[in-house]
Structures are given as C-alpha cells and as structure tokens.
Amino acid sequence: MSLLRLCAFSKCLNGLILLERSVNRLSKARHCHHSFTFRNNSEMRISEPPWKSQQRHFSAAFPKKEDGKKRLCEQSQLLDVLEARIQQLQSDVVLDVQHSKVQFVKAHKSERGASSGRNPKINSGERTEVPTSGKIVGKVAGQTGKGKDDSPSKSRWLKKLNEEKTKTKKLKKKLGFEDIPVKSKKGQQMLPGTSHKIISTKAVKKMASSSKKSMTLKNQVNTVAAANQEHTVAAKSSSASKVPVRNAKRNRETLKALYPELSEEEARTQELARLERKAEADALELAKVEELERKLKQWAVSVSPEHVKDNGEARAYEDVQRRVHCYLEACVFSGDIDRAGHFLLSHHRRVSRRKLLNIESYNIMMRVWAKMGSLKQIGRMFILVEEAGLKPNLSSYCAALECMGRTPNCPPRFINRVLQQIQWDGLSVDELFRHCVFRQDERDMVLKAIHTLKPDFQPSIKPILHTCSSPLRTDSKYPKLAFSLDELQKRFNNQLCLEQASTITINSVEALKPRDLLAEQRKVWHKTLVKALRESKAIMASSTQKVVRFSLYPYLCLMDEKEYADIMIQSLANLPPSGESLHILAKQLGVRVHNKFCILMKEQNQMVDKLNNIYNEYVELLSKDNKVLNVLPREQWQTLEAKHMSGPSLLGDECHWPHAVVLELGTYLVDLMVKHMKVNSDILNSAYNRKIIPVLYHMYTFRSNRQVGFIKPHPILTQIQQDAMETTLTFDSYVMPMLCPPVPWASAKFGAYLLTPTKLMRAVLGANQHEIQLEKCQEEELHPVLDSLTQLGNTAWRINQPLLDVIISIFNGKGSEKLDVPPPLSEAPRIPRYNQQELATYTSAEKAQLKREVINAKKKCGEMHSLRMDALYKLSIANHMRDEVFWFPHNMDFRGRTYPCPPYFNHLGSDVTRAVLVFAEGKALGPGGLDWLKIHLVNLTGLKKRSSLAGRLEYANTIMDDIMDSADNPLNGKKWWQNADEPWQALACCMEITNAIRSPDPTQFISHFPVHQDGSCNGLQHYAALGRDVIGATSVNLMPCDVPQDVYSVVAQQVEGFRVRDAEKALKVAQVLEGFINRKVVKQTVMTVVYGVTRYGGRLQIEKRLKEIDNFPKEYVWDASHYLVQQVFTSLKEMFTGTREIQDWLTESARLISKSGHTVEWVTPLGLPVIQPYHRPRTQLLKNQIQDLSLQISHDSKQRPDTVKQKNAFPPNFIHSLDSTHMMLTALYCYSAGLTFVSVHDCFWTHAITVDTMNKVCREQFVALHSQPILQELSNFLLQKYCSTNARYFFVQVFLLMVE
To answer: Residue 468 CB: number of other CB atoms within 10 A?
Structure first.
C-alpha cells in the first residue's frame, strides 16, 4: 500500500452539463416576454415583472409538499429527454465523436412521488439507463411498475423525445447509417443507446464537394460505399459491427417521394445540399454544447459531489463544523493531542457525525503529526480524508511536505508524488506559499522538502497590485509624521508590550479616599477562584464521558488559572450596582478569554519577531528623517511582507469562536463567581451576626416582556466599592489608544492593532456573512477603502491639558448636568424606604404612588451610575495619555461608515471627549486661519445659523471680550461659553483664539486645534443630488447662495404656515400650537426622515420636544405631536419632490428582493460590497449549570430574510453607504494634498490653515460621486443579481433536489 492515498477528484458529468444547459433554457423562457404553451396547451402572455420570476425561482429551491411529486416527475422525464438529445447531437454530426460516460442520478424507489425535501437518504451512485430508440429503459418518478404513465396528461417532454427520435431515424436512413451497440474490451455490451461511429474525413470531403460538382446518383452511392468500406476496416480493429449501405433503388424511390416535381439529378443535388446544411447546423449546435462543457469544466470541482456537500448539506452544519475546528485547535494549543485525536476519530468512525468534519478539521491533526515528523500518521490522515469523501487542499499538502522536510532521509519519491498530486489537482506550489498560513518554521521545512527534488526552487513573489481605479494618483507622496525613526520604533515596542499584557491598569481621576478593604477582599476572591477552577478542571479531566461530546475543558487549559481569575475579578469591578444580564456578562468574559488566546497563539507561532522586523522598516515611510517614498502605507507593508517571506505568516489562521462557545465559557466562569465569591456579613458593621454570604446573586427579571437571567451584586459589595473610591482602573489593552501608528490595512483580514484580533467590518458576534462577502471581493477592489481606513488611523493626537484640568475639577466636585459632567452618586435621589407596618396604613393609590417613586428613583440612580462611570473611564484614559502622542485605529460597519476601534475615548464621543482632543501635529494659522477659528467658534455656539460666513466673523469680532474672559476665567468669569450648544469645545476654541491673538504674530502661531466643517442635513443632500432636485438642493446648500440655508428653519416656517391656515379653520390643535413651533421642535424629525424614520417614530420625537417646553399644555401633547408630524412630512414632500420617490423605489425593491428569499446587497461606488444582515430570528437553547440561555439569533444567513427590516433599512443604509463613500474619497484626496484629515461621519476636521483646501476637495468629490449614474448602476446591479438567471445557482439547487 502506498504511503499516501490521495483521493481522486470527480470529473464533470455529461448529465450535469446537459442539466445546466436545460436550466438555462428554461429560466430564459421564464423571463421571456412572449407567449409560451403550457402542458395543458393553453397560452399565457408573460407580462409580470422580473421580481415575480425570481419568486418562482426561490420556490423551486424550497418546494412545497404538494408540488414535490409533479416536480420530481418532470425532472426525471427531463433527464430522459436530455440523454436522448445529447446522443442525437453526438451521432448526427459527421465527425469522429468519442462518447463520454453519462451518469444520471435516479430517484430512490421509496421516494417516488414524494417531496424531495422529505427523505434525503438516496444512493447517489445509482445510474439511470439511457433510452434507446423508441424505448425508455428504467422507471421514472411518477410511473408504476408496469411502465405506464400515471400522470394526468402526457408530458410535453416525452412528446419532444418522440419527435427528436423520429427526426433522428429519418436522417440516419438518408445517410445510410444505423446504430449498432458497441461491446467493451471484456465483451460486455455498453449502455443501450450508446454507439460508436467513425466516419472517414475523406468521405466527408467527397460528400461536401458533391454539391458543387453535381454528382450523379451513382457517385453518391459510391461515396457512401467508400465511407462504409473505411468504416468497416476501422470497426474490425475496434471490435465494432459493420455499417450497411442501402441499395440505389431504394434511394431513388426516396428521392422521388421527397421531390416529385424535380428531375432525378436535381433531386439528388437538393437532397445533398439539405443534408450538408443539416450537418453544419448540427455541428454548430454540438460545438455550443462542447463550449458549455469546456466552461463547466473550469468549475467542475464546484459541482462535484464534494462541493455540493459543502454548499448544501454541510452549510446546515457550518456552525457545528466551526465549533469542531475551534475545539480541536484548543486541544492542540493546550497540548492535549490525545484528546484531539480521539475526538476526530470518534466523529470520523460514525457516519452520522462525519458530516460535522471538514477538511480543515483533518488539517489540524496533520499539522500536529507534521511537527512530530510522523509520515505514518500523515498517511493515515490522508486515508481518513479519502474515506470521508473530502478533497485535500493546499494546507493538507503543505502539512505533508512539512513532515517530509522534518523527516531525515525522506525518500524523494514521496515528495515527488505530493508535488505531482498538487499539479494534477490544478494547483501549484507557488499558490501553496502564497495562500497557506505558516507557523513557526513550517515554511522553511516545506522549502527543505521541495529543495530535495528542486534545489534551485524559490517561490514566486506575488506582485503588489496598484489600484488603477483608486482616486489617489500613483505619483502622490504620503505625508510624513512629525516623529523620528527612533521615536516610532520605541513607540512600537511600548505598544507591543501593552498588547502582550492584554490589560493595563491606570490611575483613576476619582481617587480621593483610598481604602485597603476592597483590595484585601480581591486577593481572597482571587485565591478562591483559582482553587475552584483547578478543582473543576480536575473533575472534567477525570470524567468518563464519551470523547465524542464537546467539553469546556480544552478552553479552560489555554491559560494559567490565575489569568482566568484576573479576568473574572476585572469583570466584577465593572459590574454596575443594578446588576447585569447573564448573557452580556458571559459574553464579555468569553470575548476576553478569546482575545487573550489569540495573542498567546501569535506568540507561540513566533510571529512577534517577524512583526517587529517589518514594522521597524515600515515606519521609515512615516518618519520625518527619511526620504519621501511614492508609495502608500498598504503598498509599503505588502512589499516588506514579500521581502521578509521566510518564517511564520503575519496573518494567522485562528478561527473565531462560535457565539455558543463564547457564551458557554463565559457562563461557566460566571457560575464559578456566583458559587465561590463570598464575604462576611459583618464586614461593614460588626453589629450584624457574622455569616458567609455570596457576593453575587443569580436572579430573574423581565426585559421587554421576556424573563432573563440577571447577576446582581450584594448591597455589601456595592457599598464596599462606593466607599473604596478605587485609585486604579483596569482595562483591556484594545480599549486604550495606540502608542504607535496602526498597522495598515493590507487586506480584509489584517490591520489596526499589532496582536489584538480586529475585524475590518464590525458585526454582531456570530455573524459571518460580511466576511464571506469580503472574501469573494477581489483584493484590488478593496484598496481604496483599505487606504482610507489606514489614513484615518494614521492621524496623531494629543491631549488638551489645560481644558482637561478644568473638566476634572468639575468632575471631582458635584459635576454639572448643564455642562454634561455627571454628578457623583451622592447627588442621586434617595430611594424611598418603608416597613410593613407603615405600608399597612396606606391606601391602594398611595401604595401605587410609592411604588412608582421607588421605580423612578432606582432608574435615576442607575442612569447616574452609568453616566458617571462612562465619564470616569473617559477622563481617566485622557489623564493617563496627557503626556503621550497616540493614534486611533479605524474599522467600519457593514455600510462603510468608519469608527475608531477604542470604544470609550475617541473623537466620535461626546462634547467632553472631543474638546480634550487636538492634533499632535501643529501648523501655522497663516493669513486666514484665525478667521476660521472665529467662524468655528460661532458655529459651536449654535447662533447665527442663517448668517453668512462674513456675518459670523463679524459677530465673533464683537464678542472678543467674552471670548477672552472665557479663556482666562472659565469657572469664575462671565461664563459666556456655558451657553453654547457645545460648551466644552467652545471653551477650547476660546483658549486657542486667545493664545493666537496674544502671540507676536497670529499668522505664525502654531495651532493644533481641529476646525470642523459639518454637512447641512447630509442625508437630504444625497437625496437631492440623486433626484436632481433643484429646490431641495438649494435648501441644503448644494446650490450657490449668498446666505447659508437652514433646512430645519425652512421646514419650521412651512409648518407654521400650515398651522395658521388650519387655525383659521378653527382647528383646536392648530390654535393651541401658536407660538410653539420652532426649529428645535422639528429638527430631529427632519434630520432622521431621510434615514427611514416612520410617522410613529417622528411623532415620538416631536412629543419629546413638546414635553421639554414648560408652558405647553400637557393634555395636548399627543394631539399636537400627531398633527405636527403630518405637517413635517407634507412639508418635506413638497420641498424634496424626488426624495420620497427614490425612498419608495428603494423600499419596494427591498421588499420584493426579500420576499423572493434573498437579502439585499449592493456595491458602493468605491467598490465595497454591502449586505444587510437582517434575517428572521431563530431561538437557540444553550444548557448550562447556572441557567439555560435562550438566544434570539437574527443574523443567521440560513434563515429567510426579515422582509420588514430589509425594506425599512435599505433606504437609510444606502444613503449611509454613499455618505461613507464621499468621506473616503475626501480622505484620499486630502491626504494626497498633504492635509491632516479626520471625520465624524459627515463632519470633517482639519487644521485652520487647510480648511479652504478641504472644502474644495469635499465639494469636488461630492460632484464627482454624483456625476456617476448611481441609481442606474444600482438598478442594473439589482436586475442582474436578482432578476436574471443564475445558471450555477439553479444547477446546484436542482441537483440537490434530485439527490435528496
């Protein structure tokens, strides 16, 4: 037996080719707008839209029970017709045709007449015999054992079959041939209907020339006789029968019957010409079939049984396969090789569980045996792969070559066989080095094995792809950072140490009364948790459960027990006094363990050293003391990766844990915390009786009419934490800003942090459809998006220290709700307390009132605690970074909207966090910079909305005394800044203006302050541009105007006009609203209507605004909000004529798409694929010791789309994608011009001196974006994807239906 039994690939079957061709024809017929005939001979005009056709297609993929019998019968009859047709095409043409074996899948006897989705057990290897002349051999679904047709009416396909057979017989008679069954070498007769014909090309030439030379009947007979003679000679050598020649007399009679009005010679000429045309037409048709076969062979693997299994049956087990993969990976990482091997074999030996394994599961064990150099085990794994019906991939062959490289004196024939098999599979060794992920020295071992046969082999380097369609010019120069090479390298080392530690402890800005009580208790709890975890693991290890079952034991062995205890103690510190749901707390714990595991795996794979080498060379592009390079960061990084090709891969192949694994692991850790973390009851008051009580309680509560598990801290723990006033805070490393420039996004899988796993596209835990879309997308198409994210992340920041000190002083006082600084919990309202004796004296109404007061007080305390902790985290992080320069790595959501990765402290935060952030790089104000600072200050105040820029500048000059007083005495002066819409940013701008004015030369003043340019209702701008709406475009400043337009004020004026008209008609609610309609009341509704807000949602928004007006009569709030939302929608419809039409078209398109069973997808103008992840929810039950979790999963791509969410979300998501595209284009061009640029969605930031340049780029890119036919391209994309025939989709679906 050979060492490696490599499985062979399935070839493309002729039957599948014919099925593909037939499906194409049938699907095109469905889309045809001409009439066609059904089986009942009735005609119907196809006038329905393509969407209806798509709905039928989806129904075909998911058949109903009533239609299953008829469909299966038609499919079986169709196969018979297709078989006969291919035989006719291959036999009619006068060529040397070599038949291929045609294999068709026949329905199982037990399933005749049943729905294809009911009984999936079927023998896929069973064959249906090919029908011979006039007979159908074998039974088809829907026929009885006697061969009678039990269908209501005879199928039109069987009629077509008889017609084709009749035409074939006539043509064979005229040519003088007949089919004779061919015997195989062993003497067995081949399938009925399969014949072997070899027609001499010499005879063909004679026949072709006969029409030109007007051959006589004798010449024709001689020609046929000559062809027959040559055929006889050939038939003897191939054990075939002779082909007889009809006599001349019978031919003359046939010609006379066909052409009675012509002479004998003319009849011969006409007949030969007709036969020649027929032969040419059939040859052309056969050529089309062969062309289709050639195209199908290019993806023959994808329609092979293995691939159909992966895309059909295995898709249903995708989550379980991923769980198996993660389980084996955890076992191998923790060193438990025996457990991994037994788990894999136990699943392999049971056929019912073998479907849970994919090729990657076997590859994990191949890697293990390859590291050990065990060729015997590698060969055994390939045998298992063959038994499982799977196909080895590049990683499989990589493991085999690695093992041979580690084996001393490995026979070269083994290596040669692997290399040959790679070539036979249509792969190459270069692809192996290009696509495989290497760990440690795997690449070197593979090269060592290959060098045994090819000493001079070197893997080819993949060329760096430059994006031709990128808006960046190829000759652009990337701007330098204001840091030397040594400084950037030191910062990289600091960031690397931070991420390797996984956590960081910083000083808290609230540390006023430190106590040792909480610290002592944490030490006790830490020891208790470590002991409990060790005991639990010992029980799991000694358990006699079957190996086939999943266990948490491998996941508890990834780290030391002390690290798990640290994670649990950290989560306890972040637990709010009101408690947290078990689901959220478990997810937080599980994610922390997974992130730590990913970092440890990268360290184990020796990736850190390689990352260090590449990054140290990469920062030469960014450092100020090196020459300017005409490459982008992504291109530089890819070049360096190719240069340092040896060693491990930077892109790891660690699998993201399934949602269920994360929650089960987290729930297990929460259970340990609840059971083993305890405290003495008299720790705070010695008067109480001492007893041991748990620190955490597991209870149940109701959230949105659903009962959910809740983890609530004991009041003693809450009191200890409040009294302790901790001096330090512990965060995960990814919460902090980076200390060095982020790793550029070189691909969709690698970028941002050094070691911490980061997704390019944010998604709900467990959702993977976005990753699949990005993998399908060509790499070069994503380059503009990746480059823009990289450039946003390369902006350096620092802290505005004077302003931070002012904020902290207010924070450590009593706070200020007016200034958005949350007060401490000591300022929270007291929760009413009462005893049972007092409660007995209350009436029912008083009891209800007391209950409401308690609920409101608890709600207020919970809100104050959340806001306080959020501000504490932000200010503590800012205080920790006050002397540092830092960066915010960026990623995006599924629509392309960009976000900084650190969650707490970033420039997308509140007014406080934005105010304390300034650019690390400073630039001189120049001649117009100071004016832009003044205009920016007026914008922050919210005043002068309808004034021109000159008017705003003039207003700023009139209040210079207030500006300078605010800067000098922010807390004790006039406090003018506190009345601004954004008070803290206004105060920061006052300080910057004051410093610039007091400098010797304001034009040379180095400013770090970011100036903002915000869009005017950006969603309406895009709608107006899409609809070419001049009136709407004017109201949102898309048209030149002397005075800036304010769409919110315009809408308020129109609504007021409607109110006056209705008040004159004595409408009571219109009369009540007199004097209350203003810009603030309608702003939120106007701003959100373009993002899909409904009238109901708009009414709630207006209701909230009306309740904020003190003197508005509360009894008219509902009626007034209902009235105003109608008037706002009417006003917008009149102002933006095309907006509602576009919204309706997008909504209706999404409704039809989702009704047909598909999610809505599109591609942004910058090439980013977008898919809406809204599916019908399904419930998944996770059983745990502490509580069974019932998960509502709404992102499962195997579920049908949620039509309501799909149609409601499409218009706003599409506008968001256009908005992000415009931002990315602006970012690319700004960086090309050397500008510092960041964005908060539609609000763009830059230095004061470069505001004019940024505005110019912003407008140019908006025009360039909407100069494209965006709606037309979207329409074409939707029609092509959802309305046209997808041959491959239907081919696989029909094949799956037949197999099932």
So the answer is: 8
- Which amino acid does the sequence have at 833? R
Asked if residue 633 lies in contact with residue 618, where contact means CB atoms within 8 angstroms, the answer is: yes
* Orientation angle between helical segments 1203-1232 and 1018-1027, nearest 10 degrees: 90
- Hey, what amino acid is at 536? S
Q: Per this entry, what is the length of the chain?
A: 1300
Torsion angle in degrees (nearest 10) through CA of 512, 513, 517, 521: -20
Residue 898, both tokens: 């960009």
Write down the number of H helices and E strands in the chain: 49, 25
Largest CA distance in the chain: 131
CB neighbour list of residue 624: distance below 8 Å, 6 or more residues apart = 480, 481, 482, 483, 484
Q: Of all helices (H) and strands (E), which one includes residue 270?
A: helix 264-298
Tell me the pairing of strands 886-887 and 43-44: unpaired
The per-residue pLDDT for range 826-871, each reduced to its tens digit, is: 888 888 777 777 777 788 888 888 888 888 888 888 888 889 989 9
Q: Where are the beta strands (DSSP E) in 489-635?
A: 503-507, 580-581
Nearest CA to 447 among 415, 481, 471?
415
Picking from 15, 20, 7, 289, the residue whose alpha carbon sits closest to that of residue 127 is 15
For residue 363 the two structure tokens come to: 């590859």
- Per-residue confidence at 1284, pLDDT binned at 50, 70, 90? low
Give the count of beta carbons closer than 10 Å to the beta carbon of residue 78. Answer: 21
Q: CA torsion 223→224→230→231, rounded to 10°?
A: 160
Full 3-state SS string of 851-868: HHHHHHHHHHHHHHHHHH
Give pTM, 2 decimals.
Answer: 0.74
Residues near 189 by Cβ (< 8 Å), separated by ≥ 6?
A: 181, 182, 183
Q: Which of 1130, 1162, 1126 has its CA nearest to residue 1146?
A: 1162
Crossing angle of the two packed helices 65-92 and 1287-1299, in degrees rounded to 10: 110
Distance between CA atoms of 991 and 995, rounded to whole angstroms?
6
List, in order, residues 6 or more apart from 1290 with CB less than 8 Å away.
23, 27, 57, 60
Q: Please state, as a whole number, how many other Cβ atoms lie within 10 Å of the Cβ of residue 1288.
A: 14
Tokens representing residue 1106 in the block: 């009306």
Distance (Å, whole) CA 571 – CA 568: 5
Residues forming the active site: 1014, 1083, 1242
**DSSP letter assigned to residue 1282:** I
Give the tens place of pLDDT for each residue, 605-628: 888 989 999 999 999 888 887 777
DSSP result, 815-863? -BTTTTBPPPGGGSPPPP---HHHHHTS-HHHHHHHHHHHHHHHHHHHH
Q: Say if CB 119 and CB 1300 are below 8 A apart.
A: yes
Handedness of CA 867, 869, 874, 879 (dihedral sign): positive
Buried b (16+ CB within 10 A) or exposed e, 231-256: beebbeeeebbebebbeeeebeebbe
Cβ atoms within 10 Å, residue 542: 7
Give the pLDDT of residue 272.
79
Closest CA to 93 of 296, 288, 229: 288
Give the pLDDT confidence of 127-164 residue by residue, as tens digits: 333 333 333 333 333 333 334 344 434 445 456 556 65
DSSP 919: E
Q: Are 769 and 1195 in contact (CB under 8 A)?
A: yes
At residue 434, the pLDDT reads 85
Q: What CA–CA distance (Å, rounded) separates 453 from 429?
A: 13
Number of other residues whose CB lies within 10 A of the CB of residue 927: 10
- Return the beta strands (E) in 444-546 as ranges: 503-507
Q: Which residue shows structure tokens 């889309």?
A: 31
Task: Give the model confidence (pLDDT) of 1210-1240 as tens digits.
Answer: 999 999 999 999 999 999 999 888 899 999 9
CA dist., res. 339 & res. 365, Å (int) = 11
